[in-house]
Write the structure tokens for this entry.
Amino acid sequence: MRLDTLKEYTFYPPLLLGCTALLASAALSWVAGATRDAIAAAEARDLRESLTQVLPAGLADNDLLADRVQIDVGATAPLTVYRARHAGKPAAAVFRVEGKGYAGPIVLLMAVDQDGQVLGVRVLKHSETPGLGDKIEIGKTDWITAFNGKSLNTGRWAVRKDGGEFDQFAGATITPRAVVQAVKGGLEIFARHQDAMLGQPQDSATMGTARAHKEGKAS
Amino acid sequence: MSGNMTTLIRDGLWHNNVVFAQMLALCPTMAVTTSGTNGLGMGLATTAVLVVANVLVSLLRRVVSPQVRIPVFIVLIASLVTIVDMALNAWLHELYKVLGLFIALIVVNCAILGRAESFASRHPVGHAFIDGLAMGIGFTGALTLIGLIREFLGSGTLFAQASQLLGPAFAFLEMRIPGYAGALLMILPPGAFAALGFLLAGKQRLDARRAAQPDKAAVLA
């Protein structure tokens, strides 16, 4: 093979680079296609798991992933709300809020009941400093459970350093501050859009599925 | 040939260790090693990418022309890391949740490009494979060691959450020093510099002492 003479031509390097990029893109898109369903399933499983974590056991008897709505709350993107129902009656709303952490956004999932009380908060995603800011994870400490039972009127919504009631961590104040502000923001959104977020009482579970299909298409 | 392989392995593990001798990949080294488990996870993920990247680059070494070798290697490495990222996310989701944070960081690990450029592009596949493996294990060892030291001094634990990374069977690795809350400084970036500095000084001393004793050096080297 006269590869060495071929390499002498001016067109060889760009051609080689082009082919590499093409092959790499092909490989990437193939893998992306092959893994898409599995990743979506794994993420849905994670979501379902965290949905059950923020809700007390037995509070909801519907499939929350199927009973979701998108509500315009004045932000750039509509807010997806998962409605928890018990025997068809609205019981709680579960939704995501985002805080501005030390090293990027902190994505939280929170559940609020009809009276505006926090049922539970969990961290879905964050990039805080390991060993410092990651104490917001339930797997590391139970700090995040301090929000349980708090509502807009009953809580002093700040970390202790700022005169509030929530502990900061040694060496990491920005992270808990961001979480507290995010949860408070979530409660404020809930206060403004309570009816839409909780939904109407419904007779049968089929309504929920029908709506979910519509939402699924829209989203 | 086998002597050659032994040299490769010894270079990767000690004499030419990515962190302690080449001083490469210090960014992930500093950032990730807040605990032994984190260091181990980052090391293992890097080793996997390093081995595959070395083999690929070695296979392509005759095709790649010198003018565009660096971009070609970067495209290869970046694609490889992305594929590993997606595959782990899809099929080993539990592990991904622990390691996911580190995987994207591997792209910027200059040690991988460094090995591709300085070794794999000039050597046959078998050697490139062994080199990648040895360098990877050396890197894993270095990260785990730094992580353990910082974790021990900084939070008073050893291998915390190892069972999340390796599975419940490894829960026995997890240890806690009773009555010691840890010095936060070691978890913060200065702790990384301090730990690395002392380890480097220790290695220098060991090597110097070994060089001073020629008989022993002959046996070990």
